[in-house]
Design a protein that fits this description.
The protein is α/β, with parallel strands linked by helices. About 40% of the residues lie in helices and about 20% in strands. The protein folds into 3 domains: about 160 residues, Alpha-D-Glucose-1,6-Bisphosphate, subunit A, domain 3 (Alpha-D-Glucose-1,6-Bisphosphate, Chain A, domain 3); about 210 residues, 3-Layer(aba) Sandwich (Alpha-D-Glucose-1,6-Bisphosphate, Chain A, domain 3), CATH 3.40.120.10; about 80 residues, 2-Layer Sandwich (TATA-Binding Protein), CATH 3.30.310.50. It has 15 helices and 20 strands. A hairpin with a 6-residue loop joins strand 10 and strand 11. Its EC number is 5.4.2.10.
Amino acid sequence: MTLIKSISGIRGTIGGTVGNNLTPIDAVKFAAAYGTWLKNDRKKEQLTVVIGRDARISGEMIQDLVVNTLIGLGIDVVDLGLSTTPTVEVAVPMEHADGGIILTASHNPKQWNALKLLNSKGEFLSGADGKRILEIADSDDFNFAQVDDLGNVRTNNAYIDLHIEEVLSLDLVASAKIKDAKFKIVVDGVNSTGGIAIPRLLEALDVYTVELYCTPNGDFPHNPEPLKEHLTDICELVKKEKADLGIVVDPDVDRLAFIDEKGEMFGEEYTLVAVADYVLGKTKGNTVSNLSSSRALRDVTEKHGGNYEASAVGEVNVVQLMKDNNAVIGGEGNGGIIYPELHYGRDSLVGVALFLSHLAEMGISVSELRKSYPSYFMSKQKIELTPHLDVDRILGLIAEKYASEDVKTIDGVKIDFADNWVHLRKSNTEPIIRIYTEASSQQEADELAHRFIEEIKAIAGI
């Protein structure tokens, strides 16, 4: 059982002991730290925070604790109830709120939950702000409101529909063409809020929808991370239903994967590639993803005459580089689409709408669309080290060894070779080096990963 505190929030497993798990006391303490930081930062007489949650079994309990803690600080709350991460991000500026909290552990199994923290723009906090909240939480320096100054709660269940309206109003969402295409789509909502939002979006686009695991009860029917090995049910159902494609989202609906008409994975790395291809074909500009994402986005960007840049891993880093690089589309290779015309956050709803617009306009199958992109294969490995080893020194020596190559050290060590790449990152919570590689074949990617595993072991003397 685990409790992980970081600059992006707090997450952990439900139950257990205080300080070692996400217990009610930990939830209250961290919510109080966020509210205290917000009061110090915003310097307003009355503050408002938007709160929404995914469908996890523990969600209602954690939400009650967080909401009432903010009320105790004198902060008003807009309660969205069951919602999605991107919906809360959209709601914060629409409500002119001072911040937001999303109660979700994203793709983690059902025993996990978390508090994800937003600023007044509906974007994830900066590293400096997150660090300050951690300091406040450790200090227990809280000043709660007097009885006449307690905050109030207002419930608003309309924001998933408002979010959908905002998506459909975007210039690049070709609603008429999607309706004319008469798509038949299977949706796996992993029994969370994607089972509410995605079918509702498809209904607005006149798509015939077959629902799979769309009851938002938090009883995840499979590992909720949208990877191939977890998605056999939808792959079979797409074929059985003779559907045009399948759509899979994670519990908080910020990661998006597609299944082609043959029941094969489109590839989570290619979700962003396909959407970027469509956007760049309509809007000239630049793109951003993180260092561990596929080289295919670079290829597609350059095909359209744009400039591609890679950020450190983490949504806040991607967003900042997108702003710096004036990117018109960006995201992460795990199926996260960030389209600034709507908001700066990973959003499966806008990803679905743009992907279907592309597919309808092209008039081809999903498998044919996939074949139109450069074909790369990734390997994701890790190597466990003993706690006393200096991981930074090991990575530094690797960077020195390959100094003649294209090396980036903004987040671990990324080495771009002519035909492939490797990205080495240390874990923030355990003595592990994560090893990501990409090449033109799976065998080459795996071999490259194992080569660097052996090099790391040799340097570490293990």
